[in-house]
Amino acid sequence: MRKIRNIFIGFLVAFSTSAFAEEAGSFKQTIANFSQSVDGFFNDYTGWFVSLIFKSVPIGEVGFPIIVGWLLLAAFIFTLYFGFVQFRRAGMAIDIVKGKYTDPNSKEEGEVSHFQALTTALSGTVGLGNIAGVGVALAIGGPGATFWMILCGLLGMASKFCECTLGVKYRTILPSGAVSGGPMYYLSQGLKEKGLGGLGKVLAVGFAVTCILAALGAGNMFQANQAHAMLSYAFDVPSEYGLITGIVLAALVFSVIVGGMPSIASVTEKIVPWMAALYIGMALIVIVGNIGQVGAAFGAIFAGAFTGAGVAGGFIGALIQGLKRATFSNEAGVGSAAIAHSAVKTKEPITEGLVSLLEPFVDTVVICTMTALVITIAGLNVGPYDGSGLTGVTLTAASFTETAGIFKYLLAIAVVMFAFSTMISWSYYGLKSWTYLFGEGKTPEMVFKALFCVFVIVGATIQFGAVIDFSDAALFAMSIFNIIGLYFLMPVVKKELASFIARVKSGEIKTYEK
């Protein structure tokens, strides 16, 4: 009897295992089919958009994207026009963040402090662009791309200053006390003041549409996808389990964004310093542990910036990759950060413009440079280091692991934190663009928040191809509408700056010790 029972139990186990294996195989195939369908859709219907945004002119052996030149030229013009404000007023910007110019007894309109606005905007920029983006840049453009990333970050500080000042000046305070601001508002209202209301409306709508697309793509699907890729790399999580990763991330994101900007700012002011400290700490350990090779690493960066022997396109290849990834990382000139900074508690628009110029420095000059040094040092150790075909987040992870195997797991934690913080910030950017087009109110807001969380799940599930190209294109497209408006409105910013500095010097604007 026992023998018959054992045979029966064995049959059940074998049958259930076979059934499970069959179900698992079916699940994998379903996920694969879904991924191919999504990528095929983007390839068939958005390829023209990607080609348009990244239209290139031939320079040497490679093509130079016009949109990259558009952003770099704007950053250079703003740097000159505002008298190198990013260098001359950096100290004042730090004092504003510390609260030196904030009256503790003042009841100013807005939702968040200067520090909270800065961390919210930083959480949208300090993210996978610094980890995966730098990995992409160096995999294609070599170490020399780092030099151009740094240059783009320094010049981009002036672009960020201009757009965030305007974001506060032309924001709308709702009856509830909530704030709606950003390029949509300063493009429409600012240009209307100059008698260009029609142009302003067209630019505002164009910006809002592309911002929503970028929020769902670059600020959402890309983040979820790379977070799951890092979990797969570090912990051997099967790629088809992206659905589970996506559901967990979507639940966490929704739990924060449902509370609006105050909830988002409350989370980012806590998570951004910790995630930045974790990542910078790991990078410093690698750099200090290989201190003898830091000089050679910088030598490779500077040599590659102007010669680039052996990399795609040489000097031009390094230039393009450096500028493109720096823009994707710090978003200077794109206009996204102005939406977050608009919510600050202040009556002086220029103060938040000054605070915002710190972003590209922290994001690109500090964090991206550290990532590039880690990758370059790893290359010197292995020599020559090409990541064995790796790119993006996996190339960066492999470079950290060259120093200590545990970094693979710590970096996975950092990547998930970066992705999560970026998603909650970009949900706010997309939401404000959504409500600009479809009206304020609980129903439009909840529709977008639900849609955003669905795209988190989609992003973690699919394998990127044409989707990431579309995400890049949508992000860069925002700058077309934004920068046209900035050229018209930069005299307004210059007047605000002159007025603020004059009142500080006269003592009309007081300082407060903290």
UniProtKB/TrEMBL annotation:
It comes from the Bacteria. Keywords: Cell inner membrane, Cell membrane, Membrane, Signal, Symport, Transmembrane, Transmembrane helix, Transport. Residues 1-21 form the signal peptide. Belongs to the alanine or glycine:cation symporter (AGCS) (TC 2.A.25) family. The keyword Transport applies. The chain crosses the membrane at residues 62-84, 202-221, 241-259, 271-291, 297-320, 361-380, 409-429, 450-468, 474-493. Pfam families: Na_Ala_symp. It is a multi-pass membrane protein. It is found in: Cell inner membrane; Cell membrane. Coiled coil: none annotated. Its main location: membrane. NCBIfam families: agcS. This is Sodium:alanine symporter. GO terms for molecular function: amino acid:sodium symporter activity. GO terms for cellular component: plasma membrane.
